[in-house]
Amino acid sequence: MRKSIRAFTGEIVPADVVQSIVLGASRAPSSKNTQPWKLILVQGQALENMRVDYLTGFNNGKAPSFEYAYSKDPLPETFKTRAIDLGKAFLTHKGIGREDKEKRKEHDSQNYRFFDAKQVFFLAVNRDEYGQGTFLDCGLFLQALINELYKRGLGCCPQYSVMAYPDLLSKHIPHSENLLFLLALPFGYPQVNHVVNTFVSKREPLENFFRVVE
After folding, report:
1. Which fold has domain 15-200?
2. Is residue 39 within 8 Å of 121, Cβ to Cβ?
3. Residue 205 CB burial class (10 angstroms; 0-12, 13-18, ≥19)
4. Is the distance from CB of 152 to CB of 33 less than 8 angstroms?
5. pLDDT digits (tens), the chain, 214 positions
6. According to the 3-state scheme, what is the secondary structure of the chain?
7. Are the CB atoms for 94 and 107 separated by under 8 Å?
8. How confident is the model at residue 113, as a pLDDT?
9. Short-list 42, 62, 63, CA closest to 51
10. Residue 42 backbone phi and psi in degrees, to 5
11. Alpha carbon distances (Å) from 92 to 24, 85, 196
12. Measuring CA to CA, which of 11, 110, 124, 158 is 20 to 30 A from 164?
């Protein structure tokens, strides 16, 4: 069962394992075999420098500047309800009260620390080459990448939230001026019994989204 992992050990995934993961994911389908995705791994000192800038920005109230809209604004009511329910359930699971602003801010800041992962993938496309279908192709590649990680006992957590600071991505990822970043994917070996990794989000019953026509 796939679930989001937000606490990792300090162990680095070896380069040969990373390469086999990416090669496996590269077999993902894409329209006319266009393979529009770009994948960048940030780790080591480069990641630590990025993490410092991200956390500083968040703590100082840096205004978000998303380069593409992930969802409709406002969210459709059904989606909004699911999002609110998820947030409440996760905070309750972590023992964080609704009025505990300090702990809630610390909870939010974990996003901008990339959950302290030692390695983070960044998925992008060329700015002058993408269309709506490109996002679908990249989604298929992302799922293939996640599957390859899980096959090897690794975990990850897709992040759109950190797309809020595209200037920091450009600062810390050389030669990325022509890239539109889609999301970050912190990954690594899970801390199995950590409280955040024992949380399982609710899913809709089958009859709410699946039907058969015959």
Report:
1. NADH Oxidase (3.40.109)
2. yes
3. exposed
4. no
5. 899 999 999 999 999 999 999 999 999 999 999 999 999 999 999 999 999 999 999 999 999 999 999 999 999 999 999 999 999 999 999 999 988 999 999 999 999 999 999 999 999 999 999 999 999 999 999 999 999 999 999 999 999 999 999 999 999 999 999 999 999 999 999 999 999 999 999 999 999 999 999 9
6. CCCCCCCECCCCCCHHHHHHHHHHHCCCCCHHHCCCCEEEEEEHHHHHHHHHHHHHHHHCCCCCCCCCCCCCCCCCHHHHHHHHHHHHHHHHHCCCCCCCHHHHHHHHHHHHCHHHCCEEEEEEEECCCCCHHHHHHHHHHHHHHHHHHHHCCCEECCECHHHHCHHHHHHHCCCCCCEEEEEEEEEECECCCCHHHHCCCCCCCHHHCCCCCC
7. yes
8. 98
9. 42
10. -115, 130
11. 37, 11, 11
12. 11
Tokens of 171: 């600062």
Q: How many Cβ atoms from other residues are within 10 Å of residue 190's Cβ?
A: 19
